[in-house]
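Write out this protein's structure.
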Amino acid sequence: MSEKVDERSTDFPQLSQLAEPEKSIVRDMLLRGLKISPAWLALSVVFWGVNGLASSAYGLGLIFTNFAFAAALLTWAGRISVGALMFAALGGFVLRLAILTVAVIAFSKIGVFAPIPLAITIIVSHLGLLVWETRYVSISLAYPGLRPSQMTQRNRKEIK
């Protein structure tokens, strides 16, 4: 009997992932972003030169920071209350959008600024990483973060 319990308990995500799914989702998203970044930066240097490379690298840094800040803000607000979580989601979006705008305007004053690669990097990386991550996120209360991948079909039937 205890073997079955041990077998089932290894299929479940860690307790910290269940308590704070935002962090595990963003961590996974950032790892995927880091995997694709070298290819994107190589394309940037081919199409736009060194200025395009610098702008694309800056854009990727902005996006990774944006996702990390969003996860930290939502995790913090989620510990307080549902109302705080909703306020952090909406207010945090507006705040992060303002910070991104200020960061882009500040970068535009530097000599290596290339607006087209920066804009394409920001738009494509935001949307691309979000769409890519939707394939791996579980939208259920049983697994509120990343979908467990090690579960066998038998164990899934037992849990339902």
